UniProtKB/TrEMBL annotation:
Binding site for Mg(2+): T61, D62, D63, D279, D281, T282
Organism listed in the record: Amycolatopsis carbonis
Cofactor annotation: Mg(2+)
GO molecular function terms noted in the UniProt entry: hydrolase activity; metal ion binding
The organism's taxonomic lineage, starting at the top: Bacteria, Bacillati, Actinomycetota, Actinomycetes, Pseudonocardiales
Protein name: ADP-ribosylglycohydrolase family protein
Similarity annotation: Belongs to the ADP-ribosylglycohydrolase family.
Alphabetical list of InterPro entries matching this protein: ADP-ribosylglycohydrolase, Ribosyl_crysJ1, Ribosyl_crysJ1_sf
Pfam families in alphabetical order: ADP_ribosyl_GH (PF03747)
Textual note on the cofactor: Binds 2 magnesium ions per subunit.
Keywords of the record: Hydrolase, Magnesium, Metal-binding
Length: 329
């Protein structure tokens, strides 16, 4: 696969995972089993879905929409995004979602940071409480647009887009890990090598943000990858859901995505993520981006469906991101 093909697969994988997790997000495993049985493909959201009631099968959520928003800003800015412009774009996106009657709005860290920013708090301070997975869920375009040859430069690019909402050791480390794995994959790395690099990037990212109490993202990814390789398939779901965790906390959901991507093929990884409970759409979205970037084949029928249902045209956006990548020293 060419770099362009891997970049397209990363965004497609993100959208597919997001849409698979849409009907199950914020539900527990028992509720998911009762409502849907085993998740094996796209499903319509039930009327009682807490965030996306009644949405059609294959519909994307905030994970993909915010990633595409960031991608457009990166292309327009030649690889750079001014923090306040990004904040304004996120607020405009949420206002549009409210007009559409959606409850799938900005996450807790982003919402708090943008409120502080509107009240005059400087961008570098507004995100000092952001320890959730919002920056990591939308960071894939940064990985596509930024080479990984100089890891510190890539982490700086991540921080530029993440600092305004997630300027913490946990938030930046998680976003840096995802971006580094995606960037390495676009350059041709397999998932083992890409995920090794993600751990190094997480260490660098943690050093950039305000320190927050919590397990080290780099250490937890390293531990989780090693642990799940020794598990039987029948043990994996319980291990990820009950021990690693799938909440919006960066040190749970992002680590869970790496754990699933470490040992499962894309179809199994994404449907498994969608059935684990918690922040299912984000776990599956990040998992899809990681696997797609690393050359693992996202099922074509799933990709075609999510593009058709949501009217996505990812090709021109990918071309723009790859062009930016070629211009960055």
């Amino acid at each position: 696969m060419s770099p362009r093909d891997r970049a397209l697969a990363a965004l497609t994988g993100l959208a597919v995972g997001d849409a698979l997790g849409m009907p199950t997000q914020s539900m527990c495993r028992a509720e998911i089993r009762a409502a849907y049985g085993k998740i094996a493909g796209f499903r319509d959201a039930i009327a009682g879905q807490p965030i996306a009631p009644g949405l059609l099968a294959g519909t994307i959520t905030d994970d993909t929409e915010q990633a595409l928003l960031l991608a457009r800003l990166l292309v327009d800015g030649g690889g750079h995004v001014e923090p306040r412009a990004f904040a304004d774009a996120l607020l405009a996106w949420e206002a549009d979602m409210i007009r559409r009657g959606s409850a799938d709005l900005l996450g807790p860290s982003t919402k708090k940071a943008l409120s502080l920013l509107e009240n005059g708090v400087p961008p570098e301070e507004a995100g000092r409480g952001g320890t959730t997975n919002g920056a990591a869920m939308r960071v894939t375009p940064v990985g596509i647009a930024t080479p990984v040859d100089d890891l510190a430069t890539l982490v700086d690019a991540v921080a530029e887009t993440a600092r305004v909402t997630h300027n913490t050791s946990l938030g930046l480390a998680a976003a840096a890990a995802v971006a580094a794995a995606v960037s390495a994959g676009v350059d041709g790395a397999n998932r083992m090598d890409a995920f090794d690099l993600a751990e190094r990037a997480a260490t660098l990212g943690a050093a950039q943000g305000h320190w927050s109490a919590g397990g080290s993202i780099a250490a937890r990814i390293h531990w989780a990858r090693d642990w799940v390789r020794g598990l039987r398939r029948s043990e994996l779901d319980d291990a990820v859901a009950d021990v690693i965790g799938t909440s919006v906390s960066a040190q749970e959901s992002v680590v869970a995505a790496f754990a699933l991507a470490e040992v499962l093929d894309p179809a199994d990884a994404l449907t498994t993520a969608a059935g684990l409970g918690g922040d299912t759409d984000t776990v599956a979205a990040i998992c899809g981006a990681l696997l797609g970037a690393c050359g693992e084949e996202i099922p074509a029928e799933l990709g075609e469906t999510v593009v058709q249902v949501n009217g996505l045209d990812l090709g021109p956006l990918v071309d723009g991101l790859v062009t930016v990548r070629r211009t960055i020293p």
